[in-house]
Write a structure and sequence with these properties.
single chain; 499 residues; 7-stranded antiparallel β-sheet
Length: 499
């Protein structure tokens, strides 16, 4: 090829290359105009699913997402089975969005739903919420730059929206799986934790990408103090928790065209989302998780069957009183039942929970006191078997074939209100045969009992031992509602050999 021809060829090549480059730019421009820009969403796991404006984009650690054209901010939702759903937004200025959906819900099989909500309140210092609008890009980069002039601010309408903070709190707590949702009367509480929460602050952050109203999105922050107690009113956890909700695109939820009810639901849900985030981060802490683990010594199921030595059984009310004892501890006192002549005593687990053997004292009807050791326990059934080095003249006979019927006349013996009232006898009838929300059987009676009767016997006049007084429902207007753990559960959960 001659030199002049080579120069012409190179010029043509450059011209064609330039045209190709322009064509590529044009195709990218047209593609973004028609289909929108592509971004990458990075998730926590392979099973994370990414949704854009409620349409599934894919699943995996990295999911490409094609934004819709001409919509500055769009809604992203990331779902993962067993984990909290995360909400965020994407704008066309972003290339990569990282979402950590790693807040795990508790499931029923975990056995962690031991917590009961005992109270939620809004602190008296909580005042009307002040709302300012922030620049989206600054806010996302960690700067809370307020926008001085926002022509569409009045159209946001937050000041006219009513939202239910209490409902948001309850829904958030129940959804985590750590809270017992069985709002029932028949619930054994010795395994439960009691949660009280106080809301101190709630701050809204509406954000805008520009001065156009259709670019608005919202996130919010909460400040909640959590206090967790056990049945003895001991504080196990006290912590102030600050947390953020996900980010919600108002246009995606039809904020500007929807009626007030839809707007209220969105704000309530955003509050719930923030509370869930804070609570899950709190309980997932290794220290907090210890609260939900069963700490029980001498579990009955791990021990061999015990054959009780009952040589002389209770046969009337006089011998029954001799076979009933008072169980004293640093937590207070309860009652107990001698169930073998060679020194085994049955009582409720919650009477001695958390105690060392040296702190358990048995007071007999004669006034004599003895030291007791725990032999086996069942926290689930609220039962414990104690052992003392003593021979007793009478013991309640454990029978697996006793027939219990509604309206049977029954008696309770115990130390109801004060130590000087030991061996008190009260009477009533069996009111019903129930099953608790924990799946345990209960004998309901109208026999007058108080907290000191816990662990004492419920029996017939002839001395037939029906079970152990476990709980009562107290409060204004509640009378004659006492419950007893029946013989079949005592035998089963304490792994007793009854012939």
């Amino acid at each position: 090829m001659e030199t002049n021809q080579l120069i012409i060829y190179q010029k043509m090549k450059l011209r064609i290359t330039g045209i190709s480059f322009l064509l590529v730019l044009a195709s990218v421009f047209i593609s973004n105009t028609i289909y929108g820009q592509k971004i990458m969403v990075q998730t926590e796991s392979e099973d994370s699913e990414v949704f854009l404006n409620n349409v599934k984009m894919g699943a995996g650690l990295k999911v490409p997402v094609q934004l819709l054209p001409n919509i500055p901010i769009q809604q992203l939702r990331i779902e993962r089975k067993g984990y909290k759903t995360e909400y965020t937004v994407a704008s066309k200025k972003e290339k990569l969005i990282v979402v950590r959906n790693n807040k795990r819900y508790a499931i029923k099989e975990d056995g962690l739903n031991r917590m009961v909500i005992s109270g939620f309140k809004i602190d008296s210092s909580f005042s009307k919420i002040e709302i300012s609008v922030y620049n989206y890009r600054d806010f996302m980069s960690g700067q809370k730059s307020k926008m001085i002039y926002v022509p569409c601010y009045d159209n946001l309408g937050f000041n006219g929206v009513n939202f239910d903070i209490i409902q948001a709190f309850k829904s958030g707590m129940y959804s985590t799986g750590y809270v017992d949702t069985n709002v029932t009367t028949l619930r054994l509480s010795n395994n439960k934790l009691f949660l009280k929460a106080t809301l101190y602050n709630l701050e809204f952050f509406p954000m805008q990408l520009s001065y156009k109203c259709n670019t608005n999105c919202i996130t919010l922050e909460t400040q909640v103090e959590y206090e967790v107690k056990d049945i003895y009113n001991n504080i196990l956890l006290s912590k102030m928790v600050e947390s953020k909700s996900g980010i919600f695109n108002l246009a995606a939820y039809n904020w500007f065209t929807a009626h007030g009810g839809v707007q209220s639901d969105l704000v309530t849900f955003a509050i719930q989302d923030a509370i869930e985030n804070g609570f899950l981060e709190t309980v997932m802490d290794p220290t907090s998780l210890k609260l939900f683990k069963e700490e029980e010594k001498l579990i009955s199921k791990d021990k061999p069957k015990l054959n009780l030595n009952t040589t002389k059984a209770v046969s009337d009310m006089a011998s029954a009183k001799q076979a009933t004892v008072t169980v004293k501890s640093k937590n207070g006192f309860g009652s107990g039942c001698i169930i073998s002549n060679d020194g085994y005593i049955l009582t409720s687990y919650h009477v001695v929970d958390g105690l060392e053997d040296s702190l358990i004292t048995i007071s007999l009807s004669t006034g004599e006191t003895l030291k007791a050791k725990m032999d086996r326990t069942s926290k689930t059934a609220d039962l414990v078997l104690l052992k003392v080095e003593r021979t007793f003249p009478f013991a309640f006979n454990i029978k697996s074939d006793l027939v219990v019927e509604v309206a049977d006349e029954v008696y309770a013996i115990g130390t109801p209100a004060a130590l000087d009232l030991k061996q008190s006898v009260s009477s009533g009838i069996i009111s019903g045969l129930r099953t608790s929300s924990d799946g345990l059987s209960l004998i309901q009676s109208d026999v007058p009992v108080s907290s000191g009767n816990s662990g004492g016997p419920l029996l017939k006049k002839n001395g037939d031992f029906l079970g152990v007084v476990s709980s009562k429902i107290s409060g204004k207007g509640n009378e004659g509602l006492a419950f007893c753990t029946p013989m079949k559960d005592i035998i089963n959960f304490l792994n007793l050999d009854v012939k």
